[in-house]
Amino acid sequence: MYQKIIVALVAVAAVSVGLVAPVAGASAPTKANPQKVCQAVASQPDSPKQELKAIRLAQSGNVAALKQALVAMERAAQKAVKTGKSAPTETKAYNANLGKVFAFAYEECADQQVEVTATDTSCDGFPATLDTGTFGVKITNQGANDQFFGVLTVADDDSRSPQEIVDALYATPDGQDPEGISFVTGADAPKGASGFAFGTLEAGRHVFVCGSETAAIGSGEFTVA
User: Fold this and answer.
1) What angle do CA 145, 148, 149 make, to 5 degrees?
2) What is the helix (H) or strand (E) element at residue 135, kind and residue range?
3) Biggest alpha carbon–alpha carbon distance for the chain
């Protein structure tokens, strides 16, 4: 949920949510509301305080499969808010739990699902067109090194090729977007594993890229209508 150009995620399997039938004489359990998790992920918080708010929104969904992960994330986010530093939300343990949340969002929240396969030399599976609305990406890394996947929105009057846009992305200092380009979503995919991304697409021209922190391995363009 805490969005950066490279979001550390791990491979996890999405778990379907089961509701326990009420027991006679006992209060009925709170019904799960997965949409709360979807809303939390879609909010794309960009500070520890917003992160904590998103976590609590996801918790209000009462999704049993995510309960333990969200409790651990809440503790880390509370510490981040208290200290004013994001480090508690950037640990391997936190990112593993974050991966569970995004895997759930990929399965339960995305109107469109895209499966991408990355190797050491290519990035395949992304379609030429998508519809407006929510979408999820699952990137499976079959290469020998960790990789990331990113989706960018490009200004309508930008005539540069996808490769030129990606080159500009890599040449731009961390924390900044190249002129005419905005970041939509992204995921990290450790070698031999998968990562999940979730976002919302608006009509227009978009570019995707797979690669490492220092070099692109594959890129291309797609249109959203």
Assistant:
1) 140
2) strand 133-141
3) 67
